[in-house]
Structure formats: structure tokens, C-alpha cells
Design goal:
By secondary structure, the protein is an alpha+beta fold. It has 9 helices and 13 strands. Among the domains are: about 80 residues, Arc Repressor Mutant, subunit A; about 100 residues, 3-Layer(aba) Sandwich (D-Maltodextrin-Binding Protein, domain 2).
């Protein structure tokens, strides 16, 4: 199916929901005339009238009702399928919940997403925008907050704690095997803690160094060492009992995540749709 055909179907589905070209256009971010043109194109292509139009109302023909009854679950399946891909992502930001509905509402939109912990210069490397913690955003960028605050936590397996006591303060970590967290460049970064105004940065020197959150979580679950990972990355394994969270009162939320882009960048309708989708998540 061509993108134009999917766009026509999405336009029809919006009109069928709202019984209005204007409201359908508002939902899809285009004019009422663009919606009307798309539906007319669909009717011409399939050779069947789908809508009854008057100067005051829009209603579905019998054929239109039949098509709508198939389209609604089909678009719901597309959204569900795209959201289901989120389990394979390695970034703490849950893009799956945004991407699915965004592409269904904007079938002509083309997205290219690169997931990396590397500090990327989006201007030099030709990206339209990036996602980064607020503390790392450079000057000259417009930043839009897009997500509640995240938190890094310390986790280990029950088997690991069978042979070692749970750490009560970050100072106790020196007696534990701790995975070293790496940036893609190879540089290590410290485990950071804060409680009652006291800040502690601990640099692990364990036998294992990783730059992948999924591998860190799996390694911790295997009992090899403690890991310092995004809380939502380990949440399911904590709930199932595969991992145990420690030093909870020392693990404070990080800065907010932001979508950022150059202040001189022209905001196209497509890019505005992405910004609005991120803000609403």
C-alpha cells in the first residue's frame, strides 16, 4: 500500500469518527479541504461513495460504515504493534508510546531515529533534534521538556545477596562487585548518590565494564555484580523478584529529559507534529 492510500484511509477514518471535515482536519493537523480532497480521492480510487454530504452534515453510507468497521480495529492493531516494539528499545525514554500514534495520525511522516548514549552534535551531524538530560544541553538550543524525571538505581540478584550483605550506604559499595558504566567513547562515569544534602560519587572498579543498559540488567540478574541502571529498565525484574533494589533512599531523580533543537531551525508542520507528540506523552 502506498503512503497516499494510507493517508486517504486515515483521513476517512477521522471524518467517520467526527462526522465533520473541520474536526477531522483539526485532529490530523491539516485543513478541512485537504481532508475532503483525500476522501474524494479514496472514493474515486475504489469507485464507491463512502460519505453522504450536505451543506450542514456528513454521514456514512452503508459502504462507509462497512469500511469504518474494518479500519478502526486495523489502525488500533497498527498502534498496538508499534507500541509493542518498545520492549526492544535500549533507551530509558519510552518512544514506543509516542511513535505508534504519531505515525498513525501522520502516515506520510518519515522518522529516522538513532539511539545512542554518545554526546552528539546534532548540527554538525545533520539531525533535526535530539533528546538529552537538561544538564547536557548546549547553548543556542531550544529545549522542550518531554518526560517526568528519571532515576538511576542500584540492583542485584537475590543469589548475589545470599553471599553478601546489602549495602546500607554508598560507602559500603567498596566491598561489592559493581559493574562499571561506560559511555560509547569508553569513558567511565561514576555512580551518583544524594541524601539529606550529602552528595557522593562512587567510581566502581569491578571486573565488568558495559555501555549497554540491557546487558547491565542481565548481568546483575545473573548474580555477577551490582548494576547502576535506569529504574524503568529494571522495574519488571524488580517486581518479579529477579532483582533486588538497594540504596533506594540515596538514589535521587535525575534532571528532566528534553527534546532540543537549534533556535534558528525552521519549524515545519511535520516537526511540529513530533514536538506536540513528545510534549503530550
Amino acid at each position: 500500500m502506498r503512503a497516499t492510500e494510507l493517508s486517504e484511509l486515515a483521513a476517512f477514518a477521522a471524518v467517520a469518527r467526527h462526522k465533520s471535515f473541520r474536526k477531522a482536519g483539526e485532529e490530523r493537523g491539516v485543513t478541512a479541504s485537504a481532508i475532503s480532497h483525500a476522501v474524494l480521492g479514496l472514493e474515486d480510487r475504489i469507485g464507491v461513495r463512502l460519505l453522504n454530504r450536505t451543506t450542514r452534515s456528513v454521514s456514512l453510507t452503508e459502504a462507509g460504515e462497512l469500511l469504518r468497521s474494518h479500519l478502526d480495529p486495523a489502525f488500533a492493531e497498527i498502534t498496538s504493534a508499534l507500541e509493542g516494539l518498545n520492549q526492544y528499545r535500549e533507551t530509558p525514554f519510552v518512544l514506543g508510546r509516542v511513535i505508534g500514534p504519531l505515525l498513525v495520525r501522520n502516515p506520510n511522516l518519515q522518522l529516522e531515529i538513532v539511539a545512542t548514549d554518545r554526546l552528539v552534535d546534532i548540527v554538525d551531524e545533520g539531525f533535526d533534534a535530539g533528546i538529552r538530560l537538561g544538564e547536557r544541553i548546549t547553548e543556542g538550543m531550544i529545549a522542550v521538556r518531554i518526560k517526568p524525571r528519571l532515576r538511576l538505581v542500584v540492583v542485584g540478584s537475590p543469589a548475589y545477596f545470599h553471599t553478601r550483605p546489602m549495602p546500607l550506604t554508598p560507602h559500603d559499595l567498596k566491598d561489592h562487585a559493581c559493574i562499571q558504566n561506560m559511555y560509547p567513547s569508553g569513558a567511565r562515569y561514576a555512580w551518583e548518590f544524594e541524601k539529606d544534602g550529602q552528595a557522593i560519587a562512587y567510581q566502581p572498579n569491578g571486573p565488568l565494564s558495559l555501555d549497554d543498559q540491557e546487558l547491565m540488567t542481565q548481568a546483575a540478574a545473573s548474580g555477577v555484580a551490582l548494576a547502576y541502571v535506569w529504574e524503568n529498565r529494571a522495574e519488571k525484574m524488580i517486581m518479579s523478584g529477579e532483582l533486588v533494589q538497594v540504596l533506594n533512599d540515596w538514589c535521587q531523580p535525575e534532571d528532566y529529559l528534553y527534546l532540543y533543537y537549534p533556535s534558528r531551525r525552521h519549524i515545519s508542520a511535520a516537526f511540529r507534529a513530533v514536538i506536540d507528540a513528545m510534549k503530550s506523552e
